[in-house]
């Protein structure tokens, strides 16, 4: 789905579940996936790994046509900065990347200098 999420896409979010420590992650990718349940860890069918996901509140309704719920999933791909620090995202970040420290239920994550330039680049600039 589009990386251009708005808070109105996320109104029924209740809880963020992180599967990894965010301490060393400059960014995560976010996407809306369709899942059969409001809660529990959703299936993951991308390359890379799931970093976290959203649980929906009881008021969230499934799509009437598919019976599926739209939930945010946070992930990283094998060529992202955490796995390949000298790779394509040494500086810059994919369009759907946001700083995981800015993610809250019902609010889109935010791009920050850390997510876009990397913590190493920010540390070097501050020296």
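Sequence proposed for the structure above (127 residues):
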């Amino acid at each position: 789905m589009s990386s251009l999420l708005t808070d109105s896409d996320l109104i029924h979010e209740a809880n963020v579940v992180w599967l990894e420590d965010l301490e060393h992650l400059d960014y995560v990718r976010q996407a809306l996936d369709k899942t059969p349940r409001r809660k529990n860890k959703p299936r993951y069918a991308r390359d890379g790994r799931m970093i976290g996901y959203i649980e929906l509140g009881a008021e969230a309704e499934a799509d009437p046509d598919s019976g599926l719920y739209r939930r945010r999933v946070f992930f990283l791909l094998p060529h992202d900065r955490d796995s390949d620090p000298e790779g394509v995202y040494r500086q810059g970040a994919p369009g759907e990347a946001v700083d995981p420290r800015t993610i809250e239920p019902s609010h889109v994550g935010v791009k920050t200098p850390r997510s876009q330039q990397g913590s190493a680049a920010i540390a070097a600039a501050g020296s």
